[in-house]
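Two folds, back to back.
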Amino acid sequence: MKNFDFLGLKEVQDFIEANLNETISKLALQKNPFPELDWKEILNQIEAKSKSKDKLPTWFNAENIIFPSKISVEQTSSEKTALYKSKLIFGEKIIDLTGGFGVDAFYYSKQFSKVIHCEHNSELSEIVKHNFDKLKVQNIQCIYGESDEILKAYNEQFDWIYIDPSRRNDSKGKVFMLRDCEPNVPDLLDFYFNYSPKILIKTAPLLDLTAGLKELKHVFAIHIVALENEVKELLWEIHQGYEEKPVVKTVNISKNSEEKFEFYLGASLSEASYGEPKKFLYEPNAAIMKSGGFDEVGNQFILKKIHPHSHLYTSDEKIDFCGRVFEIIDVIPYQKSEMKLYLENKKANITARNFPESVDIIRKKWKIKDGGNLYTFFTTDIKNNKIVLLCNKIK
């Protein structure tokens, strides 16, 4: 086991703090100011800690925290998404079968009386235990070993099992199907049910919902979690014996708000309503776009869709919406004369939805500079005409 005690020395911690904004390649070329200590590990601490500043402020701001490799920091949950997860579930006992750097376990410790943190990397397990001591968390037990063996050894009932399967496979590289991840959750579900009736699984944002449902059973809910309009996590809530349609819950977490939207998968009560562009335009956030609940958006918000495949919505009256909101200034046909008059050699923000040309092609073709206050949507209307919506952004 590697000895990390030297990282707690005041002079080493002071050096790490003083160099958080330096490039590692530059630091690596200089002479080791602590010749008797592990220079590579000190450099790793600087690089990993600098990457945690915005993502893991609790760890970044605490004293004498030890960081694992920068890859572990990059792969771990952010504090914002871990906090969101911790509000979804609660109880007396939870076991985190893929503990990693322990960010999720830290937040679960606020909702559960006891948390078991399992980690098959002995060095990482020791680091996490050290950090929990520094963070004064007393209800998390860190155990080194393989999760299935730990479950068998404990042989206890838990309120919840949490799993974040590794999305890297020795032979296949980065993978996205659940059966190619470690542990193989689909094949182990019945085994897990011996120890808990409820399981929360975190998967890659790129996993297709339909593909996930084919691999899993008893899915009670699917949570799509976006941070600042970028989907970060899919969470699969499994309840033993549940056989009904799952509810899809989307959230877009931003600095000052949480945009939430939900619907039952495959249970839309009515067809979408279509119409020509009106006064206001609505673009769903990334979490809703990932959900595929496009008809449900129009139905719940009482909006008209511009086209079945454009996924843009419109209304005469402005509403509070889960996504971007625009006021439509003008609607022009996508024709040479109109483009020359309104957009050629101008500055504009461009979005292309259900349109035969990409943003790059449009920008190059009409010499449109990026930026400014004008927002344009190149799209197709309900009559299959190619149109351009000229807009002011409201939200």
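---
second:
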Amino acid sequence: MVDRFNNDQTQVFLILLKAGGTGLNLVGADVVIHYDPWWNQAAQNQATDRAHRIGQEHKVTVYNLISKGTIEEKILEMQKNKQQLANNILGNDRVNSSNLSKEDLLGLL
């Protein structure tokens, strides 16, 4: 199925986000649409990267479809907060565990 998709014999290829960890290379893709975000941004990025592999000849556009007022909107906000917290911790020599609040630590979990 992947070979047919990558060789323009199939126009749409639907996979679950978690399928990104199986080694699929979808270099035939020119659009990636995420409509069910995962709490772990890295897993979502890995799925997107399946279309950005060696052999990709298309410009790839990525869309995130999120409905207002849904759990997915809350997941997106959680991803943003986790990324900001990680950037603050990893990108700042003055930040250490003693500077983190209880809420920050619970947010990491």
